[in-house]
Amino acid sequence: PRPATDDAREPPKRCPETSPGRPRHDRAVRRGPPGANFLARSPQSDRLLANATGRPNPATLASRCRIVDGAGMERAEYERMDAVEDRLWWYGGLRALVLDQVLRFGMGTPGRPWVDAGCGTGGMLARLRSGVPARVWAGLEADPGAATVAAAKSGAAVVVGSVNELPLASASLGGQVSLDVLCHRLVDPRRALAESHRCLERGGILVLNLPAYRWLLSAHDTRVHNARRFRRSEVVAMLVEAGFHVKRATYWNTLLFPLMAARRLLAKGHAESDVSLPPAPVNALFGVVVALERRFLRWGIDLPFGGSVLVVAEKA
User: Fold this and answer.
1) Which of 23, 31, 215, 270 sits between 20 and 30 A of 247, alpha carbons compared?
2) Residue-wise pLDDT tens for the chain (316 aa)?
3) Is 96 exposed, middle or buried (0-12, 13-18, 19+ CB in 10 A)?
């Protein structure tokens, strides 16, 4: 997600990995740095993908590629995210929940890489790398600036690209994490899920988090360019349609949901971001509440409603 561009400008240049006429997807991939050799690329783009450390270089990619989608989340939101994501209770709860699902369901083929698709500024990617060090982790982000921050923060390979057209080889991934990405206005959810299905190996795992309930669309969603929110049944139906077997589907942020709903509904006309730190005691209390929910979820109890939908699916 990135700042909007003027439609009158020249059409955005596509990244070499996905440009028309260039090889993509089912190409023989030249061996490269560990964790990066699953990238579908052409000889012309090989030189863009590695820096002196043997890791894909998002800064180089950013200088050569314009965003495929041409618009996205406002720059201020990325800056807020980068500033607070290691401290805000919501991010802490989400990371812990996603890590639980990866550890529970994400066995797969040893050595197969996992991708955080839509990794933003890299906080989740860094947590996954530290929490599951046996896995090879990489990130994909549509905004070059955020991709550069994510690579520095996580120490992982991060590539500039769109979830609508993943610059990855077919059946190359052991798993994929996608957090609050399919809700974005520039993402086609069904196309993105089809791409995830293509890139995952058979039995590969997809972990999704999405905002819940269309009636909760608010000024915050407008600010971060979310165009849709989902019911659990909608997410399950899309995954089944794309060829996935759903292993788990639950809501979360349940206990705090009444407060969240009231705030969203009362603030519909005010374009303020939710990405901000509350007072420290409130932040700590909310973190404890989400940790309690996490315990229920670890016991296998799915929650009946909440602010977000968390789904784990397997490529059938």
Assistant:
1) 215
2) 444 444 433 333 333 333 333 333 333 222 233 444 555 543 322 332 333 233 434 333 333 333 333 345 567 777 777 788 889 999 999 999 999 999 999 866 777 899 999 999 899 999 999 999 988 999 999 989 889 999 999 999 999 999 999 999 999 999 999 999 999 999 999 999 999 999 999 999 999 999 999 998 877 777 778 899 999 999 999 999 999 999 999 999 999 999 988 888 777 655 566 777 899 999 999 999 999 999 999 999 999 999 999 999 999 8
3) middle
Measure the CA–CA gap between 237 and 233, rounded to whole angstroms: 6
Q: Which of 247, 238, 274, 217 is nearest to 101 (CA)?
A: 247
d(CA 123, CA 151): 10
Let me know: does 97 contact 254? Beta carbons within 8 Å: no
Composition of the chain by helix, strand, coil, percent to 5: 35, 20, 45
Rounded (5°) CA angle 66-72-76? 105
> Is residue 179 within 8 Å of residue 209, measured between CB atoms?
yes
Maximum alpha-carbon separation in the chain:
56
Which residues, 6+ apart, have CB-to-CB distance to 278 below 8 Å?
A: 89, 286
What's the rounded Cα separation, in Å, for the pair 258 and 263? 9
pTM of the model: 0.78
Q: For residues 75 and 80, what is the distance between their CA atoms, to the nearest angstrom? A: 9
DSSP string, 184-209: BTT--HHHHHHHHHHHEEEEEEEEEE
Tokens found for residue 172: 């190359």
Q: Give the 3-state secondary structure of residue 99.
A: helix
